[in-house]
Protein backbone atom coordinates (compact mmCIF):
# COMPACT_ATOMS: atom_id res chain seq x y z
CA UNK A 1 0.00 0.00 0.00
CA UNK A 2 1.46 3.40 -0.93
CA UNK A 3 2.66 5.68 1.85
CA UNK A 4 3.02 9.36 0.97
CA UNK A 5 4.68 12.19 2.84
CA UNK A 6 3.37 15.60 1.83
CA UNK A 7 4.34 19.12 2.84
CA UNK A 8 2.25 22.02 1.55
CA UNK A 9 3.73 25.48 2.03
CA UNK A 10 1.62 28.57 1.27
CA UNK A 11 3.71 31.51 0.07
CA UNK A 12 2.65 35.12 -0.29
CA UNK A 13 0.43 35.23 2.78
CA UNK A 14 -0.12 38.05 5.28
CA UNK A 15 1.38 36.07 8.17
CA UNK A 16 4.24 33.73 8.95
CA UNK A 17 1.87 31.43 10.87
CA UNK A 18 0.72 28.41 8.87
CA UNK A 19 -1.41 26.61 11.48
CA UNK A 20 -4.68 27.90 10.00
CA UNK A 21 -3.73 26.45 6.61
CA UNK A 22 -2.67 23.19 8.23
CA UNK A 23 -5.96 22.97 10.15
CA UNK A 24 -7.94 23.42 6.93
CA UNK A 25 -5.94 20.69 5.22
CA UNK A 26 -6.58 18.39 8.19
CA UNK A 27 -10.32 19.05 7.73
CA UNK A 28 -9.96 17.83 4.14
CA UNK A 29 -8.30 14.64 5.40
CA UNK A 30 -11.08 14.09 7.93
CA UNK A 31 -13.62 14.51 5.11
CA UNK A 32 -11.84 11.75 3.17
CA UNK A 33 -13.11 9.38 5.86
CA UNK A 34 -11.98 5.78 5.95
CA UNK A 35 -10.72 5.83 2.35
CA UNK A 36 -7.28 6.92 3.64
CA UNK A 37 -5.24 6.88 6.82
CA UNK A 38 -3.10 9.85 7.83
CA UNK A 39 -0.77 11.08 10.53
CA UNK A 40 0.06 14.74 11.12
CA UNK A 41 3.67 15.39 12.15
CA UNK A 42 5.26 18.71 13.15
CA UNK A 43 6.72 19.15 9.65
CA UNK A 44 4.50 17.18 7.25
CA UNK A 45 1.61 14.75 6.93
CA UNK A 46 1.89 11.04 6.17
CA UNK A 47 -0.89 9.46 4.10
CA UNK A 48 -1.67 5.81 3.41
CA UNK A 49 -4.23 4.26 1.08
CA UNK A 50 -5.10 3.48 -2.52
CA UNK A 51 -2.83 5.46 -4.87
CA UNK A 52 -5.68 6.82 -7.01
CA UNK A 53 -7.50 8.08 -3.91
CA UNK A 54 -4.32 9.53 -2.43
CA UNK A 55 -3.47 11.44 -5.60
CA UNK A 56 -6.94 13.01 -5.57
CA UNK A 57 -6.46 13.96 -1.90
CA UNK A 58 -3.05 15.46 -2.72
CA UNK A 59 -4.62 17.65 -5.39
CA UNK A 60 -7.18 18.91 -2.86
CA UNK A 61 -4.46 19.58 -0.26
CA UNK A 62 -2.39 21.53 -2.80
CA UNK A 63 -5.41 23.63 -3.85
CA UNK A 64 -6.53 24.37 -0.28
CA UNK A 65 -4.18 27.30 0.45
CA UNK A 66 -5.15 28.98 -2.83
CA UNK A 67 -8.79 28.84 -1.73
CA UNK A 68 -7.72 30.48 1.53
CA UNK A 69 -6.00 33.38 -0.24
CA UNK A 70 -2.40 32.23 -0.75
CA UNK A 71 -0.81 33.60 -3.91
CA UNK A 72 1.66 30.75 -4.30
CA UNK A 73 1.89 27.18 -2.99
CA UNK A 74 4.95 24.90 -2.90
CA UNK A 75 4.10 21.24 -2.36
CA UNK A 76 6.66 18.50 -1.74
CA UNK A 77 5.58 14.86 -2.15
CA UNK A 78 7.44 11.62 -1.42
CA UNK A 79 5.80 8.33 -2.40
CA UNK A 80 6.87 4.93 -1.05
CA UNK A 81 4.94 2.37 -3.10
CA UNK A 82 6.16 -1.09 -2.17
CA UNK A 83 4.54 -3.90 -4.18
CA UNK A 84 6.57 -6.99 -3.29
CA UNK A 85 4.81 -7.37 0.09
CA UNK A 86 2.29 -5.53 2.26
CA UNK A 87 3.52 -2.34 3.89
CA UNK A 88 2.02 0.16 6.31
CA UNK A 89 3.08 3.06 8.48
CA UNK A 90 3.03 0.78 11.54
CA UNK A 91 4.97 -1.99 9.78
CA UNK A 92 7.73 0.43 8.82
CA UNK A 93 8.01 1.69 12.42
CA UNK A 94 8.02 -1.87 13.81
CA UNK A 95 10.80 -2.86 11.44
CA UNK A 96 13.04 -0.06 12.72
CA UNK A 97 12.14 -0.77 16.39
CA UNK A 98 13.05 -4.45 15.96
CA UNK A 99 16.45 -3.46 14.63
CA UNK A 100 17.01 -1.19 17.65
CA UNK A 101 16.39 -4.05 20.10
CA UNK A 102 19.77 -5.29 21.35
CA UNK A 103 20.66 -8.89 20.52
CA UNK A 104 20.88 -11.23 23.56
UniProtKB/TrEMBL annotation:
Positions of the Thiamine-binding protein domain: 5-96
Domain of life: Bacteria
InterPro entries reported for this sequence: MTH1187/YkoF-like, Thiamine_BP, UPF0045_domain
Location of the region described as Disordered in the Swiss-Prot/TrEMBL record: 81-104
Ranges of biased composition (kind: Basic and acidic residues): 81-97
Family according to the record: Belongs to the UPF0045 family.
PANTHER family the UniProt entry points to: UPF0045 PROTEIN ECM15
Name of the protein this chain belongs to: MTH1187 family thiamine-binding protein
Originating organism: Paenibacillus hodogayensis
Amino acid sequence: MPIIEVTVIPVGTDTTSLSGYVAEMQRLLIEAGDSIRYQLTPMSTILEGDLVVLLNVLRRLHESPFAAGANRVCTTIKIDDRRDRPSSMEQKMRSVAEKLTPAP
